[in-house]
């Protein structure tokens, strides 16, 4: 007897769709259990550089009294720069990639086109379609 399975019915077919890793919404309950068993570990633990980056950006923005637009531009440019720097230092042993590495790659030829990669006017043409980046 042969059974043909189509699906999963809850997912759109194809690789062009980028959604969360947990389409059944199990990430919250799983991470709550992990937090109880191993306090301090989260899905972003390996991205700790970003936590310190955002703290540094916030401190800089406060010191310079940056307005909302300048803060957003700074966040976007810092994220692009972090992804580009990681891309340059990438080795075969790397098991994680910062947000945006795949999206920043196309802005990197001989030099990084930072302004175009972090462009706030054409979000869909930049590294992130979100105003505040990743």
The value of Rg in angstroms is 19 Å
Main structural class? mainly alpha
Quote the distance from N terminus to C terminus. Answer: 48 Å
Q: How many H/I helices? A: 5
Number of strands: 0
Instruction: Indicate the proportion of strand residues.
Output: under 5%
Query: What is the average per-residue confidence, as pLDDT, rounded to a whole number?
Result: 78
H/E series, N to C?
HHHHH
Helix proportion range: 40-55%
Report the uncertain regions: none
Strand count, sense and closure of the main sheet? none
* Global outline: extended
How would you describe what is shown here?
By secondary structure, the protein is mainly alpha-helical. The chain has helices spanning 27-37, 48-64, 68-89, 101-104, 114-117.
Q: How would you concisely characterize the structure shown here?
A:
Helix content is 43%, strand content 0%. With 134 residues, it is mainly α.
Topology diagram in text:
Layout: H1 27-37, H2 48-64, H3 68-89, H4 101-104, H5 114-117
Helix pairs in contact: 2-3
What structural keywords apply?
134 residues; extended; mainly alpha; single chain; 43% helix
């Amino acid at each position: 007897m042969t059974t043909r399975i189509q699906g999963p019915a809850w997912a759109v077919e194809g690789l062009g769709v980028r959604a969360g890793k947990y389409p059944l919404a199990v990430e919250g309950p799983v991470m709550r259990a992990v937090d109880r068993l191993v306090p301090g570990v989260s899905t972003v633990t390996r991205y700790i550089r970003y936590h310190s980056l955002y703290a540094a950006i916030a401190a800089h923005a406060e010191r310079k009294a940056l307005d909302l637009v300048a803060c957003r531009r700074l966040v976007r440019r810092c994220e692009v720069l972090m992804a580009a720097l990681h891309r340059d230092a990438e080795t075969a042993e790397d098991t994680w990639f910062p947000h945006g590495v795949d999206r920043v790659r196309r802005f990197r030829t001989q030099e990084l086109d930072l302004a175009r990669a972090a462009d706030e006017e054409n979000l869909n043409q930049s590294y992130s379609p979100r105003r505040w980046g990743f």
